[in-house]
């Protein structure tokens, strides 16, 4: 007879959420972690206890790796090698490190496969052997994309499989210098319970590929899906298992694409690489600020230009605002695109309360960026405020002006980080004027007329938008 603490308990299977990995003692209709319905499934067998609870771990007869002083640890194995795509190397910290596992996540259709096919082709052109594994498309579909993007090169091998054991066999036979897996959610193993893409399968497959990468010093790049809110799909352990996590962002209606570093064990985690997507493939943009220089015409109300920091990289960005009067009975709308909606609402309230002559109770207000660039940092506050005020007054801002600053609730304009680098980027592009928060010690770059302000009314007065009384 089996006791409660015997074999029957060892065979019990815990439950877990396929969306977020939240464990559960029994089946539930709704996940207590993420709130998803019908996502709780039976997981892997519960791990057997090792040793006596609370006892010290037993030492093995021989350690798997020697103990050395940290100064004697070699760095040869963590030297990055360029991929041939400069913008991606910028985000990776110089290139791919042997044995590193990189996760590239993004929305469907944004261009993840196209980018990595270009990386694979560049590595193969350099004489390296690359294995590209696709579990979502047929080999013919990938070949068609390669024809279109001029990625049909020797030493680039293609496998259309979704079986983990086949991937390992192909790696053994080809012995590549780079492995690309598209995508991690489609690869599964018959030895692991659950369907491909489930928590158990994704965790086990990723662990196996990480072990393979470390064993062979093989850089591995995994393509990952994202959820509707932009988070990496699958268990959170997926992001912990890999060495580098990159986010591939972009609006499918725009050609601009950005690779953003979220985690990097070998370099900075706040860099951004810029690309443009065309029918003939994806091309890197080494000077993305040039995409926004044409906005500084100063002829249309509702335009303002700022300098945003994407990681350590200053980029010119255009903000547009529109304040349109509505009927007395119609409710006023507030819409923000590629901007933080809550920040836009805050700026509207401050503009109405702290600046004379502004009232938006009978105005629809729209705010957006141009070119698909997403602005989330507070340094764009002043540009949002002046773009909306310019539209409200139906008066354009001065020609060739950039504005930088955070707007506080009391109407003060606060200093922002890297002001000197932002101004240097504006000077490089020939910007003649800038409005910034009052910053002691800041020196205007050559060619820029610098105006420093303390509050929102001072900024409005500096650009000619402040009046004593609202004439409307």
Automatic annotation (TrEMBL):
Residues annotated as region Lon-protease-like?
364-472
| Keyword annotations of the record | ATP-binding, DNA damage, DNA repair, DNA-binding, Hydrolase, Metal-binding, Nucleotide-binding, Stress response, Zinc, Zinc-finger
- SMART domains noted in UniProt: AAA (SM00382)
Where, by residue number, is the motif RadA KNRFG motif?
263-267
InterPro entries in the record: AAA+_ATPase, DNA_repair_RadA, P-loop_NTPase, RecA_ATP-bd, Ribosomal_Su5_D2-typ_SF, Ribsml_uS5_D2-typ_fold_subgr, Rubredoxin_2
Residue ranges of domain RecA family profile in the record: 77-226
Positions contributing to ATP binding: 106-113
Function field:
DNA-dependent ATPase involved in processing of recombination intermediates, plays a role in repairing DNA breaks. Stimulates the branch migration of RecA-mediated strand transfer reactions, allowing the 3' invading strand to extend heteroduplex DNA faster. Binds ssDNA in the presence of ADP but not other nucleotides, has ATPase activity that is stimulated by ssDNA and various branched DNA structures, but inhibited by SSB. Does not have RecA's homology-searching function. Plays a role in repairing double-strand DNA breaks, probably involving stabilizing or processing branched DNA or blocked replication forks.
Q: What is recorded about the protein's domains?
A: The middle region has homology to RecA with ATPase motifs including the RadA KNRFG motif, while the C-terminus is homologous to Lon protease.
Q: Which HAMAP family match?
A: RadA_bact
Instruction: Give the family this protein belongs to, as stated in its UniProt record.
Output: Belongs to the RecA family. RadA subfamily.
NCBIfam families, per database record: sms
What name is this protein filed under?
A: DNA repair protein RadA
Classification of source organism: Bacteria, Bacillati, Actinomycetota, Actinomycetes, Pseudonocardiales
């Amino acid at each position: 007879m089996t006791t409660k603490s015997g074999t029957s308990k060892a065979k019990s299977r815990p439950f877990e959420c396929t969306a977020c990995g939240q464990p559960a003692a029994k089946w539930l209709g709704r996940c207590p972690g993420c709130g998803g319905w019908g996502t709780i499934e039976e997981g892997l067998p519960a791990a057997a206890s090792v040793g006596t609870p609370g006892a010290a771990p037993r030492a093995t007869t021989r350690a798997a790796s020697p103990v050395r002083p940290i100064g004697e640890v070699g760095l040869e194995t963590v030297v990055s090698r360029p991929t041939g795509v400069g913008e991606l190397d910028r985000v990776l910290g110089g290139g791919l490190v042997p044995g590193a596992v990189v996760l590239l996540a993004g929305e469907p259709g944004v261009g993840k496969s196209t980018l990595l096919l270009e990386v694979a082709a560049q590595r193969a052109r350099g004489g390296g052997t690359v294995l590209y594994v696709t579990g979502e498309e047929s080999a013919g579909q990938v070949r068609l994309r390669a024809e279109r993007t001029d990625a049909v090169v020797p030493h680039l091998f293609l496998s259309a499989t979704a079986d983990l054991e086949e991937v390992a066999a192909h790696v053994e036979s080809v012995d590549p210098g780079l492995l690309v897996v598209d995508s991690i959610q489609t690869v599964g193993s018959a030895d692991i319970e659950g369907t491909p893409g489930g928590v158990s399968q994704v965790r086990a497959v990723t662990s196996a590929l990480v072990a393979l990468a470390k064993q062979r010093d093989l850089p591995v790049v995994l393509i990952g899906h994202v959820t509707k809110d932009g988070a990496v799909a699958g268990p959170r352990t997926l992001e912990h298992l890999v060495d580098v996590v990159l986010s591939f962002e972009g609006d499918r209606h725009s050609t601009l694409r950005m690779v953003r570093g979220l985690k990097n064990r070998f370099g900075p985690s706040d860099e951004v690489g810029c690309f443009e997507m065309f029918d003939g493939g994806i091309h890197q943009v080494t000077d993305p600020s040039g995409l926004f220089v044409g906005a500084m015409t100063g002829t249309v109300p509702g335009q303002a230009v700022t300098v945003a920091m994407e990681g350590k990289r200053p980029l010119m960005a255009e903000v547009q605002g529109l304040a349109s009067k509505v009927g007395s009975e119609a409710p006023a709308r507030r819409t923000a695109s590629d901007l933080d909606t809550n920040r836009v609402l805050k700026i509207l309230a401050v503009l109405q309360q702290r600046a004379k002559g502004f009232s938006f109770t009978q105005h629809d207000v729209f705010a957006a960026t141009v070119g698909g660039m997403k602005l989330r940092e507070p340094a764009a506050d002043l540009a949002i405020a002046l773009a909306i005020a310019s539209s409200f007054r139906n008066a354009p801002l001065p020609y060739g002006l950039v504005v930088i600053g955070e707007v506080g609730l009391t109407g003060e304009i606060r200093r922002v980080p890297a002001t000197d680098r932002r101004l240097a980027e504006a000077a490089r592009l020939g910007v003649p004027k800038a409005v910034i928060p009052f910053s002691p010690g800041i020196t205007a770059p050559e060619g820029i007329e610098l105006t420093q302000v303390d509050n929102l009314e001072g900024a409005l007065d500096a650009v000619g938008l402040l009046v004593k009384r609202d004439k409307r």
